[in-house]
Amino acid sequence: MNNGLLYFGGLLVVVLAALFAVPNFVDWNGYRGVFEEEASKVLGRDVRVGGSVNLKLLPVPYVRFEKVRIANLTGQTGEPFVRAESFTMWLSGPAILRGVLEASQIELDKPVLTLAVDDAGGGNWTNIELKAGDMPFVPHDVALRSVRLTEGAVAIYNAAAERVALIDGIDGELSADGLKGPFRFKGSVSWAGAAHDVKFATDVPSADGAFALKVSARGDDSPTVYMLDGHVSDLSNKPTFKGRWTGKIAIPGSETTTPPGKAPPLLDLVSDVTADPLGAKFEKLALSLDDTAAPQTITGSAVATWTASPRLDISLQSKWLDIDRLAGAGQGSASFEKLKQLTGGLMQSVAGDSTATAKISLEQVKVGGENAGGLSIDAVRQGNVTHLKTFKVSLPGGSRLDLAGDLKNNAGKFSFAGNAFIGGSSFGRLKAWAEKSGVPIDFNADGSYSAAGKLEVDDTHFALTDASGDLSGRALAGELKILRGDRQQTDLTLQAADLDTREVFPKIAAALGSEFRRSLGLQKLEGAEDPRAVLPGDVRLRLIASRLTDGDTTYRDVDVSFTIENREIKLPVARLTTQSGLSIELEGRVETRDSGPAGTFAFDLTGATPEAMRDLVSKAGLVAVLGEERFKGLKDGKIAGLIRLGLRAPGATDVTFDGTLNGAHLNGTAEFDGGLAGWRSRPSRIRTALDAPSLSSLLKTLGRAPVGEAQAAQPARASIVTVGIIGADADVRADVSSSDFKLSFNGHSQWPDNANLALGGTLDFKAAQFTDALAAAGVSLPSGAENVAARGSLDIGRTGPDWTIATRGFSVGTSTLAGNVTVKPDADAMRIDGKLETDRVAFQSLLAAVTDARPAPPASTPSDAADDAAADAQPIWPEGLFNFAALGNTNGTLNIAFKSLELSGGLAAHDGRMTLTLAPGKLVLSDLSAVAAGGQLSGNAGLEKVSNGVAFTSTLKLDQAKLATISAAGKGTATIDLHAEARAQSPAGLVAVMTGGGTARLADVEVPGPSTSTVAQLVDDVLGGKLQNEQRAISAGFAGALNSSKMTLGNRELALSISDGSIKLEKFVLDSADGQAEGNVTADLATLGMNAAFQLTSVVRPLPPPAIPLANWTPPPPKGTLPAVVVLYDGQLDNLAGVTVKTDVANLQRELVVRQMERNVEELEQSRRVDEERVRLEKERRKKLAAERAAALEAAKKKQMERLPPVIPESAGTGNSSAQPALPDVPSATPAQPQPPAAASPGATAQPGAPSDQQAEPRDAAKPADAGTGNTVLTPNISIEPIAPEGGSAGDPNTATGAVVIDPVTGLPIPKPEPAVRPSTGRSTGAQRQPRRTSSDEVMKSLGGGFQ
């Protein structure tokens, strides 16, 4: 078209050159019509000069026409074919002199060439031709050395008079050797709003009018270069161009400037072009980018028509395209802004008012640093609106983006309105890809996803409406609107059945939470971002979800509206329920002023389950301050209240609340002068009270675990009042009271930030149940510790994490305690150390702290009551299961000094010390040292929780126990070593399965108890007739003898064994001359019941030796042992005075019947022999006595004879034997020597009281030695009378003296013989002879038979 301009400019030069012949002094304006007419003849068109005409020859010849117009014959555009503001031509003087009109320079100011194309492909230029003018001065040959164009333009119209193209800003220089060329142009041209440096050149047209054309254009601010190289034919009618279009094209939307030393990426353009006035075809179109590792090529074709309906149809294809590279990201990942620039550049590159279609198919693209699937675009542009029929692009991670709608270009500002869909199999991959492209997505989910809705986007707003989709299987719906302005406004409505803020808008959710905390005057959580930096200006949020997960908390039935407008936060409605069932309703409006928030929030919290109540205290922030354990007793509750922010005073917060907890009424107020954030550091006043129907329910509500709940329900109240600065110094009073329980603390507290609560004060209490007092303090003992009262005062102090407790007048049950205890928390554990002194410690009390109460027995019946009355003693050990919950994670050491350590009743140790060590699941008693039974008790014992119960181990030693302390009759000492172990689930169970052993070392021990000598004496009494041989009599006699009987154990060591809940003393045997004693002693450790069984087997003491030695006498052979006597002791170790004794002598009594008969026989036989011996001895004595008397008489006679006168013979009548006086018995001058004792068997002993000589006793000389024993068997009394010296024959029995003579053979009296001649004394001889009795008769008599 520039060629045509030059052509027509040349024609104008020829026409106007003729005017130069007019003299300079002529007023050329008067000749305007002439010039116009002549020019019209030459051009064949009307030419008009609307301005002045100037012609000068000196100093430089030139001619000037202003406001020149060349008519458009078709008139379809309403514009002249050519118009220019001015036409100035400088002529060459020498050429004029030669008769040649040579324009040295031509200037066209603001020339405009209007080209109109008709339906046939011709145009308004077809009838232009140069004709010869009528004026003689008009030259026939014109040379164009320089045609200067300024602000020129070319407008192209179609047959419908619609402008289809405009080339303006033409500034350059055109030159030609003649009016037919060749032509050359160099200058700047603008189209599509961009300036280009343009050059073109032609050759001289051939005979058919065709000529070669070369055009190059380079953008001023771009490295883009276009080149056309081809031929133009039939220019005057229907011009046609065929050639090749090449170039270097800057990527649309890329940076126009590049860093030094770095060339911008350029696309190589190659295409075959065929063009005419109706349109153009671009075939074999190829765009390639060769400066990459993998060459990229886009191929296709394009067809442009600019007829009545201008249209551009483009079709492009590519196997692979690096969009990141095209967007200027090099080998990296293109940012979203780069991609946006690329898209805008593409849109701008095809901008126009005509219709255009584009079909783009890319099989694979690299975008955002990752390879993705294909890109398919089917778009139609109509004016500034591009309708996207199809826009499908595959994104990384198996994602796909579909768009359908209208893309508008409004003066370079783009907008889109249509439908959008995006979906894929991995949202995580999409997010990572988008973030690399500079598009942060506030989603953290992974897995499949999809979203669809109506999308509207422009420079000022973004709207996604009627949106729905799913994310990781969770359905979503809602809309998002963003309005950009001075303050960005974001409206978000989101509906979901299941929503997780960790996946969906996590940053926005955290920012909203931080903003809500800020509205309450709370400090920002550590690590939380500034919400104002996250939230994009004002935010209106409406969230509706069946289930919402926010961090670790899950809500259901969520309906929340939240608005942030500048500094105002509104909460029109907020209803949600936690997963545990806590219903939360909030409503309020707060303005965040510089002095702090100002406004109100109303709340209503309802929880019907313990889990819901845990959520309540957690949401209220109480768990973070006081810990969760304090609220574990909450079962249900409903609390409503009002938070007033900044109304009483700037920065102050006042809270009022009222409701119920576990059925107890709760109410209170809290005034914080420094707001909720300054509750520690600024003055505050807190008052709260809780009224419960019973102490048990009150303690449960306070998170304590009462041990017993059987007491009658009495109203109970707990209250706390604090006044002052909690972090520095605050007065504290806390009270818990009921009918039989009072606890009151008065003191001061100090609770600085990041430090433990410091506390000091006095705790006074009085409790019928000590377990309730401990429960109120947070110590829960098992139910085995019930029914123990306590009262007193404790001085309590806490510094840092450590607690100190000192007692004052403190008593528990029947024990009084004094001492100090220190409690030190250690991580998740607790350390307790202390020193205590007490007057009494009971083992059962120690065990009660780690055992539950015994399960209640079933309801008893009358028969059960009878059985219970007859039952054995109950175990002294608790039967409840072990429960080490009270120890928890406690470790500790308590040094305890006691006056009495009691096991049961009188079984106790005194004045001792011990160490009690506590550990989780473990209780150890060590370093025991005390006085017991006059000796020293030492040892240790331990309980430890194991997998199948509790393991018990113990080692005890009782050294030098004095038996006299146990029994007044006891003597000696005992040292006992004992070890035991067991494993069970209760103390009673431990004792029942306990095993172990030990030793008992005895020294000089003598204790009350049965002995064989007692039994032997009992047998002697029975055999001797002192005790009736009858079972009841023998048993009573034996029982009486046991009162004074003693058992001598001496020095010995006995083994002890423990099994099956009993401790047994090793069976011991005591041998003595009287027999053997065997003993077994057992104690039941469960009941402390003791039983001992003794079996005494005695021998019958031998018959005493005869009173006088017997020749060839041997004691009777020993008989077998007698049947055993059984002695049973039964009683309690803690009450030895109450021991009962049972004996069994039945077998002994039956045996004694036989032994008694044998003894009688032995005694009779011995008596017989003794009698015989005595008779013999008596005869010998008498014989000797007679001989001595005879000798003495003889000597006396002899002596007398010596003194007397001579004997007168009898015959002289002087002798009279009867008249002679009897001489007295003259004792022997020499006493009779005792006879040596008869030989005796070994072991025979002389009986005390036996005579040492054989002199006859004056009386009872013949009485046996055992006559005084009271034998019931009749023993004849035998007496030996002295034989008169005169009056009978020596050796004859039954002399006149009347003495009874004993038969030495039978032992019976010999009857007196009847004298043959009656004595002269005249005594009666009427006594009859008695029959002779034998020893058999005597035995029969003793048995009740035989002779009387």
Description:
With 1348 residues, the protein is α+β, with helices and mostly antiparallel strands. Among the domains are: 2-191, no CATH class; 296-635, no CATH class; 971-1149, no CATH class. The chain contains 19 helices and 63 strands. It has a 58-stranded mixed sheet that branches. A hairpin with a 2-residue loop joins strand 44 (790-799) and strand 45. Helix 1 crosses helix 2 (32-43) and helix 16 runs antiparallel to helix 17. It is rod-shaped and about 255 Å long. The N and C termini lie far apart (189 Å). Residues 1240-1252 have a biased composition (Low complexity). Residues 1269-1278 have a biased composition (Polar residues). InterPro entries: AsmA (IPR007844), AsmA-related (IPR052894). This is AsmA-like C-terminal region.
Summary tags:
alpha+beta, 1348 residues, 58-stranded mixed beta sheet, disordered C terminus
What are the SSEs and their pairings?
Layout: H1 2-17, H2 32-43, E1 47-49, E2 53-56, E3 62-70, E4 82-91, H3 93-97, E5 101-109, E6 112-116, E7 142-157, E8 163-176, E9 183-191, E10 194-202, E11 211-219, E12 225-233, E13 240-250, E14 266-276, E15 279-289, E16 296-305, E17 311-318, E18 321-322, H4 323-326, H5 336-349, E19 355-362, E20 365-367, E21 370-372, E22 375-382, E23 385-395, E24 399-410, E25 413-424, H6 427-436, E26 449-457, E27 461-471, E28 474-483, E29 489-496, E30 499-500, H7 506-519, H8 531-534, E31 538-550, E32 553-565, E33 568-578, E34 583-593, E35 596-607, H9 610-619, H10 622-626, E36 637-645, E37 653-661, E38 664-672, E39 684-692, H11 695-701, E40 716-725, E41 729-738, E42 741-750, E43 758-767, H12 770-776, E44 790-799, E45 802-812, E46 815-826, E47 829-838, E48 841-842, H13 843-848, H14 862-870, E49 890-904, E50 907-919, E51 922-932, E52 935-946, E53 949-962, E54 971-984, H15 987-992, E55 995-1008, H16 1012-1023, H17 1031-1042, E56 1046-1059, E57 1062-1072, E58 1075-1084, E59 1089-1098, E60 1125-1132, E61 1135-1144, H18 1146-1203, E62 1301-1302, ...
Parallel strand pairs: 5-7, 6-7, 17-19, 18-20, 29-31, 30-31, 47-49, 48-49
Antiparallel strand pairs: 1-3, 2-3, 3-4, 4-5, 4-6, 7-8, 8-9, 9-10, 10-11, 11-12, 12-13, 13-14, 14-15, 15-16, 16-17, 19-22, 20-21, 22-23, 23-24, 24-25, 25-26, 26-27, 27-28, 28-29, 31-32, 32-33, 33-34, 34-35, 35-36, 36-37, 37-38, 38-39, 39-40, 40-41, 41-42, 42-43, 43-44, 44-45, 45-46, 46-47, ...
Helix pairs in contact: 1-2, 16-17
